Amino acid sequence: MSRIPVDQQLLDACAALMLLLSFAMLSQRRIVSLVNLYAIQGGALAAATLLVAWRTGEGHLYLSAALTIALKVIFLPWLLHRLIRRLEVYWDTEPLLNVTGTMLVGLLVVVFAFGLAQPITQLASTATRGAIGIAVSVVLLAFLMMITRRKAMSQVVGFLSMENGLFFGAMCATYGMPMVVELGVALDVLVAMLVLGVFFFQIREQFDSLDLHHLESLKERN
Amino acid sequence: MRPADWLTQLLEIVAALAAAPIFLGWVNQCRAWLQNRRAPSLWLPYRNIRKLFHKDAVIAQNASQLFRAAPYVVFATMVLAAAIIPSMGTRLPLVVSADAIALVGLFATARMFMALAAMDIGTAFGTLGARREMMVGFLAEPALLMVIFVASLLSASTALPAITEHLATQTLGLNPALAFTAVAFTLVLLAENARIPVDNPATHLELTMIHEAMLLEYSARHLALMEWGAALKLFNYACIGFALFIPWGVATGHIGPVGLMVAIPALAVKLLLAGGGLALIETVSAKLRVMRAPEFLATAYLFAVLGLLVHVMLGARG
Description:
heterodimer, A: mainly alpha, 8 helices, B: mainly alpha, 11 helices
């Protein structure tokens, strides 16, 4: 068996950890833990970015890792925790599909994602291309989470996790997007989060709950 | 095959038979210490078995031949399983006859006989235990097979000794696929051996027991064989875990006295650590409701499949 360098091993471990955390988020019903898992996933992403930066010597990746830590490990989880406390939503209601079912669908999604990533993996020339499939599955699993959850809060965490996956994918395929794009995306996520925070309060004001299926009855009321 | 190999084979079987009750006693002892109780003697399982062998057997009137035969079948399959797991050396003469998939089949045979014997008498508890055991079993088996498939893919063989040799001679490194499957295997081990998150081996509380419910009608030598078989099963599972995930210390190649000198203490140390770890897991986790067991085993399956997928994906680097 050929010897794999240590940094490659660590990178593989980070990628595997991100996939694992996506599944953990999929199965977690406590919103506080969900936010913590999101923060850990951000940490894994930052570690992976640092590793790639160290390996390739691309200076802007250090900056993007710092941005990831500041935004996804510290600021957004803090904001979400504050929102949880103020809105007093600690548990999601029973998801549309039970946990075991969601997990099995998640596995199929990962198989699909790996199939999807196969041609890209063959085209890419980066040393990290093996992890592209994992990035695609993180995105799709976050999608699945947004589909199966009812509370607005967990859907937002799903949305944020999807952004983690996109970021990771870009890094694996091309060693990161240009700095302008990265800054733009980071800003977008930040603004989206702030706007959604305001939305939460509005939704609760209207329906006394953050359960999104109330929104479905809007049409019939008018 | 050289006579030394046959000697190793014999030594492995005898060691398994002798060490299994002690290993069980060690786990119980660790559990007692962790729970601030006074620990029972390490030899308690032995004394228990000896006591049971000296008693007169009582068998229900409507018991069939199957009920009498089941303890011998269960015990024999466990001994056979112990014979093909490379716990000390990898050149075992009996191994050529069965690979890891056959090993899973052996465990399944023992489980089936146990469940049939439990239903044979027709008491409510026996049937209840048998049904629950089959529910746990049919969910744990795919997970165990998946774990073995990942290890087989890594070393291009389904024979346990070949897998062990491959993994033991490989350079030490972080392998996410193996890490995932190790977690999956631990979960399967807990479920299959009636340990705490799924079943409590120390309880006779009607509503929660699985394994004990199947043994309620057994007494004397039959019960002794069943309990020894259960201890052997735990020992076997631990040895499969060592063979797949921590194979260092096992004598690869043709075993000599020097290889054995290393292999025996290595196995003892691994068993000591594994027993402590198992007791720790059992102490910190609470027993799940029976209906949550599928969720637990689905997690095990998930981990195993994730290990497989991660191996396929990250291994495609080429």
